Backbone:
């Protein structure tokens, strides 16, 4: 039972109490509990939309700078070519790191040239 609760907690970032509640309501069926939690999270989301941008490493820093200046953004997620999340920050977290943009530019020029990235942008409705 604890393994099922941990599975839901890790996947949906819910408390043990919420995981247990959903599992008990579904007869401890993890598939049904997953579907129920997914539906709850979808209905709780604020209206908006998500877009994915495919960029090369050399364009990554410039894309992030442009997005910061656009506004109307809730969250930015950066994934490498294998789909591993490198950055997952709400926009206010990104605003806090804008002071480091010159350093990111220098670092980006060295590390990211040969890699491809996906930038996921969650926008306000």
Residues:
């Amino acid at each position: 039972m604890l393994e099922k609760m941990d599975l839901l907690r890790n996947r949906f970032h819910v408390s043990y109490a919420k995981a247990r509640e959903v599992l008990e309501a579904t007869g401890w069926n993890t598939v049904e509990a997953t579907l129920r939690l997914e539906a709850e999270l979808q209905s709780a989301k604020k209206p908006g939309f998500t877009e994915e941008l495919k960029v090369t490493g050399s364009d990554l820093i410039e894309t992030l700078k442009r997005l910061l200046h656009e506004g109307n953004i809730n969250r930015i997620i950066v994934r490498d070519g294998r789909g591993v999340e490198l950055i997952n920050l709400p926009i206010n977290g990104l605003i806090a790191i804008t002071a480091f943009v010159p350093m990111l530019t220098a670092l980006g020029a060295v590390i990211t040239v040969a890699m491809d990235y996906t930038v996921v942008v969650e926008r306000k409705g």
In short: The chain has two domains: 2-44, 48-124. Residues 2-44 form one domain.
